[in-house]
User: What shape does this take?
Amino acid sequence: MAKQRLVILGGGESGVGTALLGKEKGFDVFVSDKGKIKEKYKDVLIHNEIEWEDEKHSEKKILNAHMVMKSPGIPDKAPLVKTIREKGILVVSEIEFAAQYTSATIIGITGSNGKTTTATLAHHILKQKLEVGLAGNIGDSFAKQILEKDYPNYVLEISSFQLDDIVDFKPHIAVITNITPDHLDRYDYKFENYIASKFRITMNQTKDDYLIYDADDEIINNHLKEYPIQSQLLPFSLTKTIENGAYLKDNNIIITIDNNQMIMPTTNLALEGKHNIKNAMAASTAAHLLKIRKQTIRECLENFQGVEHRLEHVLKINKVQYINDSKATNVNSTYYALESMDAPTVWIVGGVDKGNNYEELFPFVNEKVKAIICLGVDNEKLFNTFSNMVDVIIETQFMSEAVKIAYKIAEAGDTVLLSPACASFDLFENYEDRGRQFKNAVRNL
Assistant: This one.
């Protein structure tokens, strides 16, 4: 019998991981990337004798596939993807392809914001007592981990793009941190399409599975009313009393699952801010479900260091605190950042705008922001939106310059905050590159 042909579009972390697992499972594998494949990934493909091409897509070599794994960065609107689907070829994400080769318990975490912090925190707690991998949108690819060391448990951070191409994927515990408008350029500018995409994380769940979600999020609540799901609901809230799930009362997080209760003071949480209480609730609820001891959960919440590029305190220079929040690639993320500022702020913002509406930031900008530095190829929208709210608004296209300007403007007691509210692809390779350039520029002051 001829081998099944697996074609992989995109030679990045998830593509190469899938190629390795696919080869191991007996597929005839071909990797095709329209851009350049990084040297480190090329070396892996060559070493493993996997056929590949880059800087082009040869349709003849692609359209004879039985299955296509497409990188989450490639939109469905791409002509090649349309052609593949028209031919009736199954298109899957790495998460879908890899999950069929593991019997692990999966905690799948999605949401517009907080998913990296929640996933990293959940992994930090679980690894104290369980063998657990961390994958998805973060770290080594899920497929590669299954191939090299199939853990009995995985925490997966999953984007809406990865969920768009699942078929049978089913996490035992699903988490939706929140849903706010993001990536609408990929969803025909229809918010409801993006919401439906996030909820795909629950589509194969049964009554033996769980959904942990933010009960303060009207969008999630409304969707659950309109489209009820099978799984057991474990909401978390800062404002309501929750019988089954987690809530906040007198600065304590109270988690109840099947009458088994756990109480944790929030005063010692390592991460600051209301949104981080929610992230802590979501991660702790998942850990509680997997029978991790209360004491272990408490200790982990108190010593967790957070995620790089997420409200990361870089340095204090001349009594000015520099904070790297490069991971804020949408308005809601920046909302949390500005909400948590308690000093006059010089705000560095801008990049590729995904159809942003900045209105929810106005109260914070009026109250806390003394100057705005726009860092993008096109800053016109930021100027039009904010120029009448602050005395100083300046435009630049270089991180080193943005930081020097901030240094000149900021006075003792101020904060300089990089929280772009936009994607990074106009001036930087990705948000990590943007964050590292910021940190280097601050260290070179």
Remarks:
- The two ends are 64 Å apart (CA to CA).
- The mean pLDDT is 93.
- Residues 126 and 287 are 6 Å apart (CA to CA).
